[in-house]
C-alpha cells in the first residue's frame, strides 16, 4: 500500500489557512514523508483533480466556477476536510449575503463587473457538497490541522474541539478580560481551538473559531449592551468572520440595521 | 490560642527562607494580569502590599489602599486547585513499534515539594474535599504526589469581598484546620499559629515574639468583622432533598436563559473535579500521549454518550451543576460541595449568583402535579 | 499503582455479529493474571485515539480470552471496528460492580435486555450455565427495535433448548418470519411464571425500557431490591474521578454499572440525569 495522498485546494479566501499549513515548519516536512502531496499550489504542487485520500479545502464557494470545481473535488476525494472559517462558515465574504445586494456591490467595486461571475450568496462548502470534517478558525490552528491529519491517517475521525473559549482560557490561567476589564469578549459563545490566543494577550475574543454549541448569544448580547456597546456594535461583533454561521447570523441580525447606521 | 506568636512584618521573609532551606518551592499571591494569583515568589516584596479587591457578580477589580498589608484582598482568581489538579496533564504515554506492539509508559508524578502562602479558609475546605475525591476511594497518583509535598500557610480573612459567603457554608473566614501554619495579618506584622509538626518545625526557625492580648483580640475582631461583612448566604448547608424535590422548577429554565454554559463557574470552583481525557498522537503515529484536562458539566462533551447527549439543554446542565454541588455532594462526600468562596459569582461573565438561584429554587414550594 | 495505565492486549479472534456490531476476542500479552465478575467492564484503548468503556461478554477469563461485543457508533468504536486479528490495543480493568450472582444463587433469574443491552447481561447467562446447579429457572427476554438488530440468534436458540431455560424475544418492527413477539419486551412478562419470593431480575437496555420493566415486575410482586439494572453513562476514567458518569450521587463507573433498583429509582429515566 502506498502512502496516503492529500490535496489542498483554494476557493474564495485569503490563503491564510494554507499559510498556517506551511508555517507548521518541521512538522510539514514530517508530513511530506508520511503523505503524498498531490496538489497544493502554495507549495508549488499542482494536480487539481488527482484522486486523493484527504482533500483540504480553503475558502467559501462564491462563484459559478467554484461551484463546479468543488463538486469535482468531492468526486476525486475520499475525505473532504474544510480548512478555516471561509470554507466552514462562508467567511468574511459572506457579509455580502446580509442584505441581498450582491449586484450592487459588484458594480460598486469592480471596474468591469461583467467578468465577475459571483453566486448570489457566498456559502460554506457544506452548502454544496458532503463534508467529512470541519476545521474552524481564521486562520486554522496548525497544530489542530496536523492532529486531524494524524487521526485520519489512523482511520479515525478527528477529535472535535467543542468546548467554549472560556474553558481553554481558564486552563491557560489567562485573566478573564470581560470580568477584569469589561471588554466585550465573545469567548463564552465561541468554540475553542485557538488555545484562547487573544485573551491570553489581553484582547477580547472576536469569535474567529465560530459558534460553539449551546451558544447563548441572546444573553451575551444583553451583557455586551450592559458594557456600553450600541446595537450596531453588538451586530458587528457577531456579523464578522463567521457572520454566516446560523447562530451568529441570527444574533447579529437582531441588532443589525441596514448600512450599520448607529441610530 | 496559647501557641499564638507574633512575627514582625519584615520578618515574613524568614518564613520564605526557612521553607526554601527545607527544599520547598514557594508560591504566594502576586498581582499579575489584573488579578491576584499564586505565583513563585522568593521575596516578600512580590506580595500584593496595599492591594484590595472589589468583587461583584461578573466583575473583579483590584484597587490600591493605604495600608502596608499584603492580604487585604479576599480571593484570587483561583484557589489551590490548579497546583494540585493541573488544568492539563499527561497521564501516560505509549508507543507502537514496527511490529505493531504497544508499550505503555507511566508519566512520573511531580513529587516536588510546594509551599503556598496566603491560603484562605474556603480554599482549605475545598482542598479537603478534593482530597476526598482524588485520594479516598481510588488514589490518583498525580494529585497524590503533589498533595503529599504540600505545605500550607493559611491566612485568616480580615476582609470579605461582596461575593464571599463562607460564613453561611461554615467554611470561613477563619481557617480552623488543614494548615501547617496560619497567619493573622495586623498592620505591623502577623500572628502565627501552627497546625502540624511540619509547621512547628518551620516556626522554630522564625524570629517569633510573644503576642500581646491586644494583638490577639484585634485579629479575632477582624475575622468576626469579615464574617459580618458578608451578606450573601445559601438557604441551608444541606439542600440535597430540597433540590431533588424541585427538578421541575421553572427557575431552571429562567436561569438557562441567562446562562452562557461557558464553564467559567466550574473552572474557578475550587471543588469541581471533572476532567476529560484524550490522546495526542505525534505526527507519524509512532508515539502518543494520553492527557486529561479540566472539563465542565456545561460542556458539549460532558454527558455525551454514543450519538446522543444526556444533557443537551443548558437548563439541564445548570441543574446538574447545582443539584450536584449543593445536593448530591452530600451523598458522595458527606457535605455540600460549596465552600462559599464566591468565585463562580465573580467570574460568571453574566454575573449569575449561585446563592440567589439556590434561594429562588429552594424557598419556593414544591410544584404540584408534576412528575419527572 | 497507576489506575489509569492500560495493558497491551492482542486481538486473537474477531466475529461479526451484525452489520455494525462485532466482537473482539482479546488476549493480554503480559501474561499477568486477570479475573472479573459478570457485569464488569474494561476500558479499551485504540492506539493514538482514545479509550472507550466496553462490558465483558465472556463467562470467565479462564481460557485467557476476553470477549467484548461492540457497536460501531462513535469515534473510537468505529476505529476499533477496523482492527483485525493480530492488532494490538490497550486494556485496563475490570471496573465497577457487576451483577449480584452470589445473592442470586438458589433463585430463579429473569434477564431482561433491550438492544445491545444484551451484551452487558450475557455474562450472567454464561455464568449461570457454567454453574447450573446453583441457580433455578433462567428466563431470557430480549427486545430489539428491528429484528435485523438481533444478534446471537443461534445462541438464543441453543439456550432455549436447554432444560430450565426460557427464551422470549420481542421486536418493535419485525421482518417476515419472525417467530417472536411484535411489540415491547415488557409485554412478554405475561408469559413468565413468576415465583416472586425466589426470583431476581436483571435488566439492561434503554433507560425507559428498564424503568418500565422494573415498575412492571414490581407490580407483579417482585421486591424492589430483587430488581437489578446496569446503567450506562459517559465514562472516561472508570475509577470515579473524571465526573462524567455521575447520576445524582452515584459514579456509575465505580458504584455501578449494576445497581439495585432502589439505588437509582429516583433519577432513572429522568431527562437530564
Describe the structure in your own words:
The complex is a heterotrimer of chains A (about 260), B (about 375) and C (about 270). Chain A is about 35% helix and about 15% strand. Chain A has about 260 residues and is an alpha/beta fold. In chain A, about 50% of the residues are buried. Chain B has about 375 residues and is of the alpha+beta class. Chain B is about 30% helix and about 25% strand. Chain B has 13 helices and 16 strands. In chain B, strands 3-2-8-9-10-11-1-12 form an 8-stranded mixed β-sheet. Chain B has a 4-stranded antiparallel β-sheet with strand order 7-6-14-13, with no helix packed on it. Chain B has a two-stranded antiparallel sheet with strand order 4-5. The longest helix of chain B has 20 residues, at about 315-335. The radius of gyration of chain B is 22 Å and the shape is globular. The model of chain B has no long low-confidence stretch (mean pLDDT about 95). Chain C has about 270 residues and is an alpha/beta fold. Chain C is about 20% helix and about 35% strand. Chain C is built from 6 helices and 15 strands. In chain C, the strands form 3 sheets. Chain C has a 7-stranded mixed β-sheet with strand order 10-9-8-7-11-12-15, with helices on both faces. The chains are: A alpha/beta (about 260), B alpha+beta (about 375), C alpha/beta (about 270). Chains in contact: A-B, A-C, B-C. The interface of A and C includes residues 151, 156, 157 and 159 of A.
Distance between the termini of chain C: 32 Å
| Total of domains of chain A | 2
Major sheet details of chain A:
5 strands, parallel
Which residue ranges of chain A are poorly predicted, with pLDDT under 50 across at least 5 consecutive positions?
Answer: none
Distance between the termini of chain A: 64 Å
CATH level-3 fold name of the largest domain in chain A: Rossmann fold
Series of H and E elements of chain C: EEEEEHEEHEHEEEHEEEHEH
Which strands sit side by side, in order, in the main sheet of chain A? 2-1-3-5-7
Helix share bin of chain A: 25-40%
The CATH architecture name of the largest domain in chain C reads: 3-Layer(aba) Sandwich
The beta-strand count of chain C equals 15
Mean pLDDT across the residues of chain A is 94
Q: Helices and strands of chain C: which structural class? A: alpha/beta
Largest sheet of chain C: 7 strands, mixed
Query: What is the helix fraction of residues of chain C, given as a range?
Result: 10-25%
- Give me the Rg of chain C, rounded: 18 Å
Oligomer category: heterotrimer
Amino acid at each position: 500500500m502506498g502512502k496516503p495522498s492529500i490535496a489542498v485546494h483554494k476557493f474564495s479566501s485569503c490563503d491564510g489557512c494554507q499559510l498556517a499549513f506551511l508555517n507548521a515548519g518541521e512538522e510539514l516536512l514530517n508530513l511530506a514523508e508520511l503523505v503524498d502531496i498531490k496538489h497544493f499550489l502554495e507549495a508549488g504542487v499542482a494536480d487539481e483533480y488527482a484522486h486523493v485520500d484527504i482533500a483540504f479545502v480553503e475558502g467559501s464557494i462564491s462563484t459559478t466556477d467554484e461551484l463546479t470545481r468543488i463538486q469535482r473535488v468531492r468526486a476525486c476525494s475520499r475525505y473532504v476536510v474544510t480548512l478555516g472559517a471561509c470554507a466552514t462558515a462562508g467567511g468574511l465574504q459572506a457579509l455580502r449575503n446580509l442584505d441581498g445586494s450582491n449586484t450592487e456591490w459588484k458594480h460598486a467595486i469592480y471596474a468591469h463587473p461583467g467578468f465577475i461571475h459571483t453566486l448570489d450568496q457566498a456559502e460554506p462548502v457544506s452548502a454544496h457538497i458532503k463534508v467529512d470534517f470541519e476545521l474552524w478558525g481564521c486562520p486554522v490552528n496548525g497544530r489542530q490541522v496536523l492532529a486531524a491529519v494524524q487521526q485520519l491517517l489512523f482511520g479515525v475521525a478527528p477529535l472535535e474541539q467543542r468546548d467554549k473559549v472560556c474553558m481553554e482560557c481558564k486552563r491557560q490561567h489567562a485573566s478573564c478580560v470581560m470580568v477584569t476589564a469589561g471588554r466585550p469578549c465573545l469567548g463564552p459563545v465561541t468554540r475553542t481551538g485557538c488555545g484562547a490566543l487573544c485573551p491570553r494577550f489581553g484582547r477580547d475574543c472576536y469569535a474567529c473559531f465560530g459558534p460553539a454549541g449551546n451558544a447563548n448569544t441572546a444573553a451575551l448580547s444583553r451583557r455586551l449592551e450592559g458594557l456600553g456597546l450600541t446595537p450596531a456594535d453588538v451586530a458587528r461583533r457577531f456579523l464578522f468572520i463567521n457572520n454566516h454561521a446560523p447562530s451568529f447570523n441570527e444574533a447579529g441580525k437582531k441588532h443589525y440595521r441596514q448600512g450599520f447606521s448607529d441610530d | 490560642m496559647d501557641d499564638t506568636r507574633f512575627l514582625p512584618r519584615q520578618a515574613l521573609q524568614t518564613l520564605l527562607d526557612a521553607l526554601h532551606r527545607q527544599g520547598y518551592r514557594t508560591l504566594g499571591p502576586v498581582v499579575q494580569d489584573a488579578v491576584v494569583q499564586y505565583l513563585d515568589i522568593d521575596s516578600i516584596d512580590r506580595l500584593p502590599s496595599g492591594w484590595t479587591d472589589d468583587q461583584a457578580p461578573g466583575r473583579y477589580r483590584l484597587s490600591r489602599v493605604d495600608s502596608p498589608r499584603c492580604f487585604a484582598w479576599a480571593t484570587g482568581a483561583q484557589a489551590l486547585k490548579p497546583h494540585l489538579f493541573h488544568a492539563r496533564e499527561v497521564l501516560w504515554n505509549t508507543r507502537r513499534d514496527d511490529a505493531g506492539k504497544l508499550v505503555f509508559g507511566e508519566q512520573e508524578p511531580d513529587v516536588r515539594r510546594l509551599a503556598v502562602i496566603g491560603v484562605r479558609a474556603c480554599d482549605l475546605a475545598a482542598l479537603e474535599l478534593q482530597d476526598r475525591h482524588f485520594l479516598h476511594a481510588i488514589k490518583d497518583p498525580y494529585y497524590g504526589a503533589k498533595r503529599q509535598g504540600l505545605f500550607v500557610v493559611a491566612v485568616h480573612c480580615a476582609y470579605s469581598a461582596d461575593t464571599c459567603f463562607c460564613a453561611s457554608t461554615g467554611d470561613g473566614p477563619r481557617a480552623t484546620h488543614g494548615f501547617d501554619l496560619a497567619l493573622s495579618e495586623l498592620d505591623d506584622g502577623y500572628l502565627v499559629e501552627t497546625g502540624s509538626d511540619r509547621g512547628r518545625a518551620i516556626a522554630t526557625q522564625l524570629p517569633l515574639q510573644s503576642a500581646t492580648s491586644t494583638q490577639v483580640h484585634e485579629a479575632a475582631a477582624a475575622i468576626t468583622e469579615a464574617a459580618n461583612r458578608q451578606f450573601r448566604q445559601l438557604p441551608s448547608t444541606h439542600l440535597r432533598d430540597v433540590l431533588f424535590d424541585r427538578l421541575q422548577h421553572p427557575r431552571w429554565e429562567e436561569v438557562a436563559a441567562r446562562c452562557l454554559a461557558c464553564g467559567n463557574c466550574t473552572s474557578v470552583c475550587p471543588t469541581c473535579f471533572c476532567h476529560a481525557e484524550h490522546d495526542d498522537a505525534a505526527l507519524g503515529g509512532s508515539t502518543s500521549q494520553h492527557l486529561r484536562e479540566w472539563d465542565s458539566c456545561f460542556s458539549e462533551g460532558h454527558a455525551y454518550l454514543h450519538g446522543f447527549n444526556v444533557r443537551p439543554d443548558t437548563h439541564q446542565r445548570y441543574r446538574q451543576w447545582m443539584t450536584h454541588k449543593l445536593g448530591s455532594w452530600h451523598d458522595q462526600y458527606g457535605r455540600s460541595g460549596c465552600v462559599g468562596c464566591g468565585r463562580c459569582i465573580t467570574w460568571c461573565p453574566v454575573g449569575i449568583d449561585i446563592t440567589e438561584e439556590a434561594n429562588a429554587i429552594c424557598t419556593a414550594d414544591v410544584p404540584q402535579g408534576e412528575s419527572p | 499503582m497507576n489506575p489509569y495505565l492500560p495493558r497491551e492486549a492482542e486481538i486473537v479472534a474477531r466475529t461479526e455479529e451484525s452489520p455494525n456490531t462485532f466482537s473482539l476476542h482479546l488476549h493480554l500479552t503480559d501474561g499477568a493474571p486477570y479475573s472479573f465478575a459478570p457485569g464488569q467492564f474494561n476500558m479499551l484503548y485504540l492506539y493514538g485515539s482514545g479509550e472507550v468503556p466496553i462490558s465483558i461478554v465472556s463467562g470467565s477469563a479462564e481460557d485467557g480470552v476476553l470477549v467484548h461485543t461492540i457497536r460501531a457508533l462513535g469515534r473510537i468504536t468505529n476505529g476499533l471496528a477496523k482492527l483485525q486479528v493480530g492488532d494490538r490495543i490497550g486494556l485496563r480493568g475490570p471496573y465497577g460492580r457487576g451483577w449480584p450472582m452470589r445473592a442470586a444463587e438458589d433463585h430463579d433469574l429473569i434477564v431482561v435486555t433491550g438492544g445491545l443491552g444484551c451484551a452487558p447481561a450475557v455474562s450472567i447467562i454464561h455464568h449461570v450455565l457454567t454453574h447450573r446447579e446453583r441457580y433455578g429457572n433462567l428466563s431470557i427476554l430480549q427486545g430489539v427495535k428491528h429484528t435485523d438488530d438481533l444478534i446471537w440468534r443461534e445462541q438464543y436458540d441453543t439456550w432455549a433448548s436447554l432444560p430450565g431455560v426460557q427464551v422470549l424475544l420481542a421486536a418493535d418492527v419485525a421482518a417476515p418470519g419472525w417467530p417472536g413477539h411484535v411489540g415491547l419486551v415488557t409485554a412478554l412478562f405475561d408469559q413468565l411464571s413468576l415465583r416472586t419470593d425466589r426470583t431476581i431480575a436483571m435488566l439492561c437496555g434503554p433507560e425507559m425500557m428498564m424503568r418500565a420493566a422494573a415498575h412492571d415486575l414490581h407490580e407483579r410482586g417482585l421486591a424492589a431490591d430483587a430488581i437489578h439494572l446496569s446503567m450506562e453513562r459517559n465514562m472516561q476514567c472508570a475509577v470515579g474521578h473524571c465526573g462524567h458518569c455521575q447520576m445524582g450521587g452515584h459514579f456509575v463507573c465505580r458504584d455501578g454499572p449494576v445497581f439495585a433498583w432502589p439505588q437509582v429509582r429516583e433519577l432513572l429515566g429522568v431527562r437530564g440525569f
